[in-house]
Amino acid sequence: MAVLLHRLGRSAYRHRKLVLGIWLVVLAALITCASIFGGKLDDRFTVPGTESQRALDTLGETLPEASGAGAQIVFTAPEGHHITEAPYKAAIAGTEAAVAKAPQVKAVIGPGLSGAVSADRSTAIVQVQYSVQRAEVHPSSLDVIERAAEAAEKNGLRTSVGGSAYGSNGVHIGPSEIIGVAVAVLVLVVTFGSLLAAGMSLLPALLGVAVGLAGLFALTPAVSISSTAVTLALMLGLAVGIDYILFILTRHRQQLARGTDPQESIALANGTAGSAVVFAGSTVIIALAALSVIGIPFLTVMGLGAAGAVLVAVLAAITLLPALAGFAGNRLTPKPGSKEARRATDPDGSAGRATLGARWVRTVVAKPLLTVLAVAGILVALALPTADLRLALPDNGSAPATSTERTAYDTVNDKFGPGFNGPLLVLTETDKGPGAHAGSQAARKLRDLKGVKAVLPPVPTRESAQTVIQVIPETGPDSARTDRLVRDIRAAAPDIRETTGATVAVTGTTAVNIDVSARLSDSLLPFMAIVVGLSLILLTMVFRSLVVPLKAAVGFLLSVAASLGLVVAVFQWGWLADTLGLAHTGPVVSFLPIILIGVLFGLAMDYEVFLVSGMREEWVHTGVARGSVIDGARHSVRVVTAAALIMFTVFAGFFPLDDALIKPIAFALAVGVAIDAFAVRLTLVPAILALAGRHAWWLPAWLDRALPDLDVEGTRLQKAPQVQQKEPERVP
């Protein structure tokens, strides 16, 4: 692989105009396709094969207004008045009439029909039903509903609009993300001591992100792509794109400072650091693509979309960067006498003061056992809250506190009870004549279940044998008690069928979300086992060692557990919630742990390869165990630190977003990167390898012969004749 990447880097350098032109043409073509053919983003959560999804699909054919999105208009009378007073009843009736004319609206159910008036008669709800899912609701339709609600306020009513028709606002690019990129640029400038080198790191990464996102939008007519998938692809593509280019460009500038010809230097950097980039990127891609085995479409698209963004970032690093380096030529060479030049020409620090990284590694390995116990103890303590981890999908209770959907949610919660924000739909069906009688009997059975606040009369569908019963739980949609009620209804299904002749199936948004979370919870441990097993195999092949992969796997598990522990403490328990500006605390987003595992696995392997490869190289050359840890780490600590800081700032830049899906993911990835890079890779890894001594690099001879040699460190480059022969550059 190293020799192939060496040739690729040299070719891209020599044909730089062609390479840059190809990238620009591809970007222009994808933007054109996205603008002409691009469709809408689809934020539906579906779980094929589950009871809730099957019943929802059935309702989509027999009672579309029950299976589609819904909006709520919540009316509150002035203090001292009742919502049932004549002027307010007239205002509500006028709102119903206006909303019924809105595009796509299938049914409008006022409090006169539904009885949705609070016990203190201060609040009433108008239900608006669509026959389409939320992703297909036109913004113009919601605008009509909001204007109609505002018109009612002229009569003194307070109104708010919410319901399942509202949700994530899609892809966000705002000041916080720009600040994150600006901080990343600052880190690059400090790392390289050069504005040109910093810009050289950022430009290919931004171009790669643009290609990846344009590609996703171009696919929207054929594939259901969610706004969360696009935001995750943006977040990951930007973070890994800058990091991968940083690794290769750092090696290139070090070689330029030692007098290497620019063309040969970028080719060597591509063959050595580029090999590690390809390996690290491949692990991220594999881990993200593995999300497709869980069998949840939106998670599959999210994983494949993010994997595609990482793939583009890798391609940009190994092709576009060498091409841009060709345009820069010798101008990327560190200035003589600069810190960068001194570090490159005097890597062991013998001619000057030791670097901060070298001093840190020496401190860590001076008392390795104490270091291991201290770091492991801290990480285990941070991981303790993970035992209380609860998973759920966010609803409007997680929306920004100032939003109309959050106001509606809170008002319904206070005046009607939390269960009205997450009603369950029970589909009944009988094969013995009309289903109305069996539906009524089933409704009576459902009223007797624990946790049920109310059961509305059965509603017939277009199929005479079917009815739909709305069950209002006592608790909210993200409550464990609501989850238990869904299980209790399903457990009671055989008894209901025996006594009424009707089969029952629980569905609706709340039940679908519960089934999504359940499947994700069941998939968590198998997915973790796949990822950890993959890391053991890959690292054994790379480092020809048993201790290194075992240590890496344990460190990875500690990083994930500690990160999840912090997520639980902040987002579920509410620690520092006010300080961090959290709008809502409750269960953790159900797909966050799997996303965190997939992403953090790739990044952990990334830092592991760059850090440990230098140690192994020193061990091969010197055979001195502790010395190889210190000397090998010194060359990589600075670049790993810079890469982790960049990754942290990019992820943290998405945290201020008022998006219940993105905010916890951004927090988890930011703290996960910080913990894995600084606590595990830069502290725990050197200490464990120092403790292991010579045993750290031992591998049974039979296993060494059986495993393929990936040559991530590029040792074959020294033996390849094409590397030794310098070809004249052809200027295009």
TrEMBL record:
It is a multi-pass membrane protein. Its main location: membrane. It is found in: Cell membrane. The chain crosses the membrane at residues 20-38, 178-198, 205-223, 229-249, 276-299, 305-329, 369-387, 524-543, 555-576, 588-607, 636-655, 667-692. Keywords: Cell membrane, Membrane, Transmembrane, Transmembrane helix. InterPro entries: MMPL_dom, Mycobact_MmpL, SSD. Residues 195-327 form the SSD domain. The keyword Repressor does not apply. It holds the Pfam family MMPL. PROSITE patterns: SSD (PS50156). This is MMPL family transporter. It comes from Streptomyces neyagawaensis.
